[in-house]
Amino acid sequence: MIKVLAVDDEEPFRRLLKKELTRKGFLLETASEGETALGMIEANTFDVVLLDILMPGMDGISLLKKINGTASPPRIIVLTGKATVETAVEAMKNGAYDYMTKPFKLDELELALKRAYEFKRLSIKSEALEQELVRHEASHELVGQSEPMLEIRRLIKKVAPSDSTVLITGESGTGKELVANSIWKNSKRSNALFTALNCATLSEQLIESELFGHEKGSFTTAYKTKYGIVEAADKGTLLLDEIGELPVELQPKLLRFMDSGEFRRVGGNKTHTADVRVIASTNRNLSEMVAGGKFREDLFYRLNVINLVVPP
């Protein structure tokens, strides 16, 4: 559902937007002036802001500039009843996505909102793709005609169409990542992205940043907002390789994400969501790690919905 904030000093107009856009399936909140709107944006996640230019106190252009200075700003559609070329140009120069003149047709507004949302979603995906290793196609396929390998192929075809979490276990070098790739290729998510993160190669802080992203200024070298792998993999598939190496301190956050699809970037207080199918792989005995207090039992059971054992 697209989450929209409408900022306008005219109460009847806000009430009309609330009624009509809610009926159209949008999740709408309203604010009557700039300071209130800015506080709401800093505390919550919005996809699109509908912003009136002429308001008492903080005007629309000033608020537009402040919104675009926040972490992960929403796309902004400027609305006004007194349109001039100058105000339109100024709004677009300061980062507005679109500009509409009152009165407008509801269908036109609905279309503009959906376009703005899609543009925001694709922008996040594009930035994340520059930061992460994303595989559109694998260059290798599973090979081998032994009975255990044929059984793995049969199991892949059986489990791939579901959205269930898969735990792939086996010795190092047995092709666990190829199995994960094959599950993705045969799944309903094959037209979306397949992304992998090796949990054994990064420190605890870096793993969390890679997985969930971070906000600008959250640590010394965080010079800009970074979108995490889960955002890159939205609607797609994420492989967590060497899941047994995931730091215990980070395991509750992964469990929360798997249960609800919700996460927070490092240094951020906004809750974000992503729809991701998780596949995990390991050469460790996670049952023994659970018994030894090195892996959370609840996370183990959440990962071990389907277990594929790759033969040596």
TrEMBL record:
Pfam families for this protein: Response_reg, Sigma54_activat
Domain Response regulatory: 3-117
Entry keyword Transcription: yes
Coiled-coil regions listed: none
Keyword rRNA-binding: no
GO process terms (BP): phosphorelay signal transduction system; regulation of DNA-templated transcription
CDD domains, per database record: AAA
Record-linked SUPFAM superfamilies: CheY-like (SSF52172), P-loop containing nucleoside triphosphate hydrolases (SSF52540)
UniProt-listed InterPro entries: AAA+_ATPase (IPR003593), CheY-like_superfamily (IPR011006), P-loop_NTPase (IPR027417), Sig_transdc_resp-reg_receiver (IPR001789), Sigma_54_int (IPR002078), Sigma_54_int_dom_ATP-bd_1 (IPR025662), Sigma_54_int_dom_ATP-bd_2 (IPR025943)
Gene3D superfamilies: 3.40.50.2300, P-loop containing nucleotide triphosphate hydrolases
Residue ranges occupied by any Sigma-54 factor interaction domain in the UniProt entry: 142-312
Listed name of the protein: Sigma-54-dependent Fis family transcriptional regulator
Source species of the chain: marine sediment metagenome
